[in-house]
Design brief:
Number of strands of chain A: 11
Number of helices of chain A: 0
Radius of gyration of chain B: 13 Å
Oligomer: heterodimer
Largest sheet of chain B: 6 strands, mixed
Strand content of chain B: over 45%
Distance between the termini of chain A: 36 Å
Number of strands of chain B: 10
Largest sheet of chain A: 7 strands, mixed
Largest interface: A-B, 23 and 26 residues
Shape of chain A: globular
Structural class of chain A: mainly beta
Order of helices and strands of chain B: EEEEEEEEEE
Helix content of chain A: under 10%
Helix content of chain B: under 10%
């Protein structure tokens, strides 16, 4: 079945870096744009970043611009989020989400369960 | 950045009643790029409505979306107990692709 599974979360110190991953299965990974969305404990959804199907277009939320970098390896069906200069405000469950198509302006159709990142 | 405001914060209704959820944008949003999501406790969000009024696969027809420019509405025509959740609107036409703060729907 169509599935997204995130991994790589954990507890890190302020100022450190972390890379989280998302593996997709059950569909043609290279045919879709992907997003990262985060949710702080007890809070709402916050859009973080998006990458196009070919990996040549990226956009970021103001709060992470310059600190986070999204990338993908279509040969491995894997999406990445490289996070640096982490602060406690970055503590959240980070979820990947697949767009409805290859283009970036599209709704988020399939979601993973997320991986928890705690900065403390 | 386009700021989305949702109201009310919490909606408490009985089964069978009609729920009307509002999403207001700080600047005009192309209705092709407005979505609604449902999130139940402990679960990932679920896409309900995209392009302002198109239902995602498997979404019951009691869910409908409408609106334009800066004012959008999600309507649940006949509330069911399983509709208890937080509902988020999102604009995905202009980066950053912002979400609203959510409306919590409680079933009495």
């Amino acid at each position: 079945q169509v599935q997204l599974v995130e991994s790589g979360g954990g507890v890190v110190q302020p100022g450190s870096s972390l890379r989280i991953s998302c593996v997709g299965s059950g569909f043609s990974f290279r045919s879709y744009a992907f997003h990262w969305v985060r949710q702080a404990p007890g809070k709402g959804l916050e859009w973080v970043a998006v990458i196009s199907s070919g990996g040549n277009d990226e956009y970021y939320a103001d709060a992470v611009e310059g600190r986070f970098s999204v990338s993908r390896d279509n040969s491995k069906n894997t999406l990445y989020l490289q996070m640096s200069s982490l602060s406690p405000e970055d503590t959240a469950v980070y979820s990947c989400a697949r767009g409805m198509s290859s283009v970036i302006p599209d709704a988020l159709e399939i979601w993973g369960q997320g991986t928890l990142v705690i900065v403390s | 950045e386009i700021v989305l405001t949702q109201s009310p914060g919490t909606l408490s209704l009985s089964p069978g009643e009609r729920a009307t959820l509002s999403c207001r944008a700080s600047q005009s949003v192309d209705s092709r790029f407005l979505a609604w999501y449902q999130q139940k406790p402990g679960q990932a969000p679920r896409l309900l409505i995209y392009a302002e009024s198109s239902r995602a696969t498997g979404v019951p027809d009691r869910f409908s979306g409408s609106g334009s420019w800066t004012d959008f509405t999600l309507t649940i025509s006949r509330l069911q107990p399983e509709d208890c959740a937080v509902y988020y609107c999102q604009q995905y036409g202009t980066s950053p692709f912002t979400f609203g703060p959510g409306t919590k729907v409680d079933i009495k």
